[in-house]
Write a structure and sequence with these properties.
mainly alpha, 62% helix, 0% strand, transmembrane helix, Fatty_acid_hydroxylase, transmembrane
Length: 336
């Protein structure tokens, strides 16, 4: 990106900066902020554009995989492939949530309280002491341990917030929308009520702001963390468990089968990245019972077709029980 802003923008943001000492990424970072001339707008725009490009860019491969029968052997619920109509409906809901949560109208920066996720991030970050437009970037080792902290914090926050969203009032008015698909697919990762996008999004953000109280944090570290988080969220909703999926190499990684069960059973497995919180708090008992039933069915099956039929029967029973769980939750709300 070439500099097309006035020299005043550079002098105001980067006085005394030696451009020859910067690496390629840092030079482009400087160019972006100078081009916009306003750090608040520059931070907001790069956040919004990154989110849309990564979210839909990562979802497209899963859409292609869903359209290729060869991959059904690794589909967790192979009899439930999202139709083009379902995918289009999902895209419309996700875009609406993104626009209302992330992108305010041109007339007013505060059209919705949810806009703070993107457009008030810069001033909020500066209040907490986070570096935004500044260069150079932190070292790779610094970014690595801080991202690890963000992941750890967000996973605990997500478990607690997600568990709360399954309480009757919050489920009916907010979280129920996300559970429309009992067999999730990549695009459905953020198919949710804007309030849910905001609530869970605060877990992604809060860890970085808290860490700012103890050490220096740069926006580029948070930027990379959000990219990782988007990949994780989309992949966990993909509905596929490949032999090369990360959970087969990192046993504590949740993976798609962990979250796929949550959508099928309407309960258990509230964490997003790791398995340990559900294990610690005892919210994975039904999941482990389900996996044991599937493992037993596989051991007893004589042919692959026998196992496929047995697995579908188990899945149907789990879904039926899950629907009863959801109905009981809504009935409880009506009584109150």
């Amino acid at each position: 990106m070439a500099f097309n802003a006035t020299a005043g923008s550079f002098d105001a943001l980067y006085p005394g900066t030696d451009m020859s000492s910067l690496n390629w990424a840092e030079e482009k970072w400087v160019a972006w902020y100078v081009w916009w001339g306003n750090p608040i707008i520059a931070t907001g725009m790069i956040s919004f554009l990154m989110h849309e490009i990564v979210y839909f860019g990562r979802s497209i491969p899963w859409m292609i995989i869903d359209a290729i029968p060869y991959f059904r052997r690794w589909k967790l619920q192979p009899n439930k492939i999202p139709s083009p109509e379902e995918q289009w409906e999902c895209i419309k809901q996700v875009l609406w949530a993104h626009m209302t949560v992330e992108l305010p109208t041109a007339r007013c920066l505060l059209t919705l309280p949810l806009d703070i996720i993107i457009w008030l991030f810069h001033p909020m970050a500066e209040v907490f002491g986070m570096k935004t437009y500044q260069v150079p970037f932190p070292s790779n080792s610094t970014m690595a341990w801080q991202i690890a902290f963000f992941m750890f914090f967000e996973d605990l926050f997500h478990w607690a917030a997600h568990r709360a969203l399954h309480e009757a009032h919050l489920y009916k008015h907010i979280h129920k929308l996300h559970h429309k698909y009992s067999a999730p697919f990549g695009l459905a990762a953020e198919y949710a009520h804007p309030a849910e996008v905001f609530i869970l999004g605060m877990g992604t953000l809060a860890g970085s702001l808290i860490l700012c109280l103890f050490t220096e944090v740069h926006f580029v570290t948070f930027f990379l963390w959000v990219i990782i988080k988007l990949f994780q969220a989309i992949d966990s909703h993909s509905g596929y468990d490949f032999p090369w999926s990360l959970k087969h190499f990192l046993p504590f990684w949740a993976g798609a089968d962990h979250h796929d069960f949550h959508h099928m059973a309407f309960t258990d497995n509230y964490a997003t990245s790791f398995r340990w919180w559900d294990s610690i708090f005892g919210t994975d008992h039904k999941y482990h019972a389900y996996r044991a039933r599937v493992k037993s069915a596989k051991a007893k099956a004589i042919t692959a077709e026998d196992f496929f039929k047995a697995e579908q029967e188990i899945n149907a029973a789990v879904l039926s029980e899950g629907l009863l769980t959801e109905a009981a939750l809504e009935a409880k709300l009506k009584k109150n």
